[in-house]
Amino acid sequence: MNSKTTATLFLAGVLMCFAWEGRAQDTLKINFDEAVQRALQRNVDYRTQQNEVGRAQATATQSLFGLGPEVSLSGDFYERKGRQQITDPDDQSVRFVDVTSRNISLGLNASMVLFNGLNRILTYRSSSNALRAQELGLESAKQQAIVTVTQQYMQVLLSKELYLIALDNYRDQEESLKRIEGQVEVNARPMVDFYNQKAEVSRFKSLLITAENTYQNDLATLAQSIQLEPSTPFLLELPESELETLLAAEYDLDALYETAMANRPDVRQQSFATKASSQSLWATKGGGLPTISAFYNYGTFYNSTIPATIGVQLREVFPAHFYGLSINVPLFNKFQNTSSIQRAKVDYENAKLQDEAIKFSVYQEVLSAYNNVVASKASYYAAKDRLESASLALQLQKERYDIGAGSFVDYSQAVNSHLQAKAGLSQAIFSLKFQQIILDYQCGIVR
């Protein structure tokens, strides 16, 4: 290699170092809480549920004010041509003349329903329970979003761990290749061992490429969930390990089920939805009963043909007060109320079915999550024992191979077993942590 080529490679290496340093400085570091917050801010289902809560809040507010009176102002301004009745305000004489007059009429109208079969009260209670159900639906969507991003977050960490394991093994194989090459040169090893090891290096390089590709794909999936720009490099911070706590934890299945029934937002959401359906049914039935209302109307008038000022006419001549009670008895409304009652009955019956179904579903989900945690603990201990045995086997095989007492095949199998054991232990650890998160989620205690 000439000096020009050496200088060129040196310059390229320096530039790559500066480029990597600049990229590292721009790399965004994200911890678990930040990932969750980003996911919630951009999760479509969660934001949709937020909008639905606003809609339910508006409906509940409307039904609350529906308990009070209804008040309105009215006003008419018009010109009238033709025969009109004109009253003299002084002597109260009346005459009919053909004239064009300018008129103003003003009114204040108030009414309040006193009784309508408790329709308004039940409607308010129904809308309040529907609002509570929607708020719990929002909480359920939040928990689901957290679990999703948690799974993706931990998958990235696992993929990174497997990538680092593959990288370490690839480097170890390269070192072994150099060592065997030196032994071959002094005739301490046959040439076939060199070529076998060279093939192993290529195989481990292929495993490394696959692990790196998996890691990058998992990073891209998480980046999409937390809405990062595609070109933004980022690193995840490893959460504090709670492995010993998880391994020492013991659970009672019945207690877990009771916790889930008390805390899970989807269970409580369905309970409030069932109450809302029941109250909506009774409110609809109340629509077939008589309605009694109190009313008060105030009106006044101005006519330009009457010899009095606007103020006098509006304040003194034409003011009138109307007040009293009104009753409305529905006799026939083309079966509209009957149809509404039937639809409300169906909604209520369906809500009760959903309420029963979710209780059974919760038990099955808690049982499955509980079994998965128990299985993950057993898998962890098995993977730990496997790695310890594989490490000892690899050490012995390496010693035998180095002194020429062992074959390359036996050594290669020991290396592969050790690699699989390391990957298996990492997977077991992350699986246990994730299954614990799923168990918490099924019990409704995701934070």
From TrEMBL:
<keyword id="KW-0998">Cell outer membrane</keyword>
<dbReference type="Pfam" id="PF02321">
    <property type="entry name" value="OEP"/>
</dbReference>
<keyword id="KW-1134">Transmembrane beta strand</keyword>
<dbReference type="InterPro" id="IPR003423">
    <property type="entry name" value="OMP_efflux"/>
</dbReference>
<protein>
    <submittedName>
        <fullName>TolC family protein</fullName>
    </submittedName>
</protein>
<dbReference type="InterPro" id="IPR051906">
    <property type="entry name" value="TolC-like"/>
</dbReference>
<keyword id="KW-0472">Membrane</keyword>
<keyword id="KW-0812">Transmembrane</keyword>
<comment type="similarity">
    <text>Belongs to the outer membrane factor (OMF) (TC 1.B.17) family.</text>
</comment>
<keyword id="KW-0813">Transport</keyword>
